[in-house]
Amino acid sequence: MNRKSNKQKMETGLLVLETKNYCALASTTPCKHCSVESYLGAKPTNTCDVDWLDVIEQFSEFGNGHVVLKNGAGALGLNEVSLLEATLEKGLSASITTEGVCMADKFESELYRLSGENPGKLGVTVSLDGETPEIYGQLRQPIHFDRAVSFIKEAKAKGLSVATNYVVHVENVGSIQEYVNFAVKELGVEKINLLELNSTGNAKTNGLKEADSQQYFDALMKTYVQGDEQIRLALDGTFAAEVYKAEKGVSEGCNGCPAGNKGMYFVQHDGEIFPCSSLEIPQYHVGNIKRMTLAEADNSMEFEYARKVAQSLTTENPLVSMCPGRLESFGDQGRMEQATEMTKIITNYLKEKGIEITKRNSCNCYSPAF
To answer: Among residues 124, 60, 50, which one has the least CA distance to residue 86?
Structure first.
């Protein structure tokens, strides 16, 4: 049987690395919604038994690609600088995800150096879930707000591309427009990723609630429609952008969630390989990078399974797709119901306007990967 029969080679490969299993905030001022239990009690150690430079070398053979360093707060150091440097030397682009709170001075200065030497090739994605310390503090610690904002401003000044992750929940969904204006107009953020709250871990313990789907839809559509070109560009990776484009007759199709396709990998701190960082569950575990290659992972049954699941979770509406990881990893039936509810909302909205869509646009889907 040809296991790659329904797989594609992504136009731009994506390699996500978690080189350390550690977060400096976990035991002191943890995020109120954190679900990464493995961070608790973990110590900041370098996992030198994984040859990260070789992993990047393997990935560079893909051709056009992007490398993301997805470490917890305080877990980016000189070892990670060398990985960014190697990535850029291979002609690939790179970015880090960070809270922007516990950044070591040496790492930060090296990050800015690399940005200056490689203009347009290096970026940061910063967790910022509100435009005020009070709203930000509903998910994180309000004392860290000013530091996160300061880091974003400095990163922009040094020429880095800056995106933010905004976790949408019941308390901040009504502030989306104010947040977007703040992030784009005052901080210069170029892209905003809107992520759903996962009711697990600390979020469940603290009783945090997901946003109402209709309120979420209305708030984001209002923000996009009333926004200028700069704001619309920042929100281009959202369902609002695709709905708006559909209204204008310029919507483009794609092939849905890319999990399992050639060119997309997540490698944990200990070398374990998964098709995506949202699929860290046994049925998607391929093997270890210390004993197999990325090319071998491409041909694995687990990657093929991820492909089939991703395709099976497409919905009736071609603008909405559900992330298999956000459903399976938490066994969350409510997540399926919420995504189905959003499908109905978008479908009804378009029907009322007499718009019928046949192409799938789930690259900018309701459940974004990043």
So the answer is: 60
Q: Shortest CA distance to 242 belongs to which of 150, 347, 335?
A: 347
Is residue 299 a contact partner of residue 3, using CB atoms and an 8 Å limit? yes
The span from the first CA to the last CA of the chain, in angstroms, equals 33
Q: What is the phi/psi pair of residue 253, to 5°?
A: -95, 160
**Per-residue pLDDT tens over the stretch 190-240:** 999 998 887 766 777 888 898 999 999 999 999 999 999 999 999 998 889
Q: What angle do CA 194, 199, 204 make, to 5 degrees?
A: 135
Q: What is the pLDDT of residues 246-278, one digit of tens each?
A: 888 776 544 567 788 888 999 999 999 999 888
Average model confidence (pLDDT) for the chain? Answer: 83
289 contacts 302 by C-beta, under 8 angstroms: no
Least Cα distance to 320 among 293, 349, 354 occurs for 349
